Amino acid sequence: MKILDQFISKVRATIPIDLQIQGAHCYHKVRLWLFKGATSPVFQELRLPDVDEVSLEKIDFSSPFLFRQNRWKSYFKRLREEAPVHYQANSPFGPFWSVTRYEDILTVDKNHELFSAEPFIVMGDPPAGLSIEMFIAMDPPKHDIQRQAVQGVVAPKNLKEMEALIRLRVRDVLDNLPVDQPFDWVSQVSIELTSRMLATLLDFPYEQRHKLVYWSDLAAASPETTGGVGTLNDTFLGVADMARHFSALWYDKAARIAGGEAPGYDLISLLQSHEATRDLIKRPMEFLGNLTLLIVGGNDTTRNSMTGGVVALSQFPGEFAKLKANTSLIPNMVSEIIRWQTPLAYMRRIATRDTVLNGQLIRKGDKVIMWYASGNRDENVFERPDDLIIDRSNARSHLSFGFGVHRCMGNRLAELQLRILWEELIERFEAISVLGEPEIVQSNFVKGYSKLMVQIARKA
Ligand code: HEM
To answer: Is the pTM of this model over 0.80?
Structure first.
């Protein structure tokens, strides 16, 4: 078996990555034709019942409408109170445990030997044939080696160098916003700023930066894995296009360095200069996986925190007044926004052996979902958990970045971007008025917004 695996890896290393994705796409189409599409879950939006109208066994915590229909707070509150480690026997993604209390989530997240991140960190399984490998879904020691190879891209020294550039880009975006007229904050600010950042991290052609957002959105919205809205066909086409661009980026960078150019602090340069990842291009699914992880990791999350902050401050106008009176609260407010928003609702694990968690027997092989969105609203840890309190003393204790070996690698970068955004906003604008309800994305994983109409008033 090992020899066969080695043979397959060798063959794969010689085939361009995009062709491999196209092959997987064909395989998937044949499967769909043979099984008449019965393998993909299909979601239809129906009104979710009030928490008091339904028994605990019947609540579907995998529903991609939980957040969009604003049912999540009451559902999770009931779970925290009545069944903090809760088994859902049926769901479109199979059975799973929901862990909803802060302390239990920490126990699971910090114990990677007992709760494995392999083979995937979202509820469903990857589409057949598209098993791209990311270190977020690997256990030590492989995880540690791969993480170490790329984490220089967000090392403090690199971030310091990036700060001036981020500020310039934030100023440019804010100075070009329409004043005293409605516009969509999500597309004009949040997406614009995160795409600029991603292009910097990857040294990706700046004028094509919106492709990064498109690919990342496709990867994060798959109905098979998160209940989102993308079609699998689009996902395969997008991943093949992404593979083509990333391979070209890799070879172009290698040629420039071979031609005497100094390696930069971008991700591709780092991967090419690290012993463990120098030949990553020859392990196509791992190559693609690690690059996808960086763009997905840094895309939705930061974008939705940028939008979430505006939504939260409009719901708690007293906090906006507090902020204007004391801008030194911005760093703490950034943590509080990330807690309040919780841009990624959960991470999934698999139990590696039978174990007992808060009185419940979890069997080897069971799926365990750590609901950060619930832990961040645990009233035993956060006072008035549903409120945004920008000077909350324990805001930094939020779970949104996870804990343990997988703790978010980009947390400092995300905080830096948000801090600069709010510093520049407060300097320019008197008010940011939210016009109507935000549009919430359909997903059980990404907790975010597709549209938020606002109007800004400049300072006199
Ligand atoms: C991992 C959230 C920004 C890159 C994670 C995890 C979460 C998370 C929940 C998994 C933690 C766990 O399993 O314990 C967030 C949030 C962000 C954010 C809420 C913004 C507010 C970023 C940015 C980047 C990034 C900007 C890009 C540099 C990563 C990577 C991992 C990760 C590479 C995998 C770490 C590992 O497995 O060792 N993030 N993230 N994230 N994030 Fe972030």
So the answer is: yes
